[in-house]
Amino acid sequence: MTKNKQATLLLAHGSSDANWLAPFEQLLQQIQSSLGNERVELAYMELAEPSLKNQVIGLVDEGYQHIDVLPLFFAAGRHLRKDVPKMLEELQSDLNKGPDLQIQLHPPIGLFPEVADAIGRIVINQVNKTS
Amino acid sequence: MTKNKQATLLLAHGSSDANWLAPFEQLLQQIQSSLGNERVELAYMELAEPSLKNQVIGLVDEGYQHIDVLPLFFAAGRHLRKDVPKMLEELQSDLNKGPDLQIQLHPPIGLFPEVADAIGRIVINQVNKTS
Prior knowledge:
Oligomer: homodimer
Radius of gyration of chain A: 16 Å
Number of helices of chain A: 4
Mean pLDDT of chain A: 90
Low-confidence stretches of chain A: none
């Protein structure tokens, strides 16, 4: 059995404000530098490029068959409950790869215990600096 | 020299949608359970209670003199660059405690390397599950 080519898209909301986008690029670089050969890219839901749609199409063109979409959100509001699943369904349909393409939308990263732990450590470091 | 009473407020955007607020409560509980006696609370910038203003006033009433505001945001847009600093300046002025009250607004947690590391670990765990 051949191994599926897998990639991860970190999904951010997007904004027309370049100041807002810059930290996501910085975050992506930090994450990429801590990983090995795993393919990880950014995608914006709206208002900025690279868009989710263009990133998925690009990865599929490169032969990726399993795409994990990991939202850089703290909570699942309307965007993550409705808009993004609809975008992904439409993409899945348009690309017409059937079961050879799996796009998986994950819970927002704010719900992962790793992130709660990280924030806990940041709080502790602040407390130690203050006192 | 007496030690200042310090508390941390985790600042989220806020929403009128209860589905959106619930994960922040969950995140707060996870963080509180990982900490010792440090005082950590949630505050919303708008559209939901407890508001930033009410949380600061409540902590000051309890005798807290140093309040760290840690935004649960990935990037500093207009809200964090303008709206929140203005709210904190007005609070500082209204509360009229002078240098006995220090309110410190920190960068958004998305800029801390601890959070990038946590997301990197989440990505790795996903890749391992997929392959």
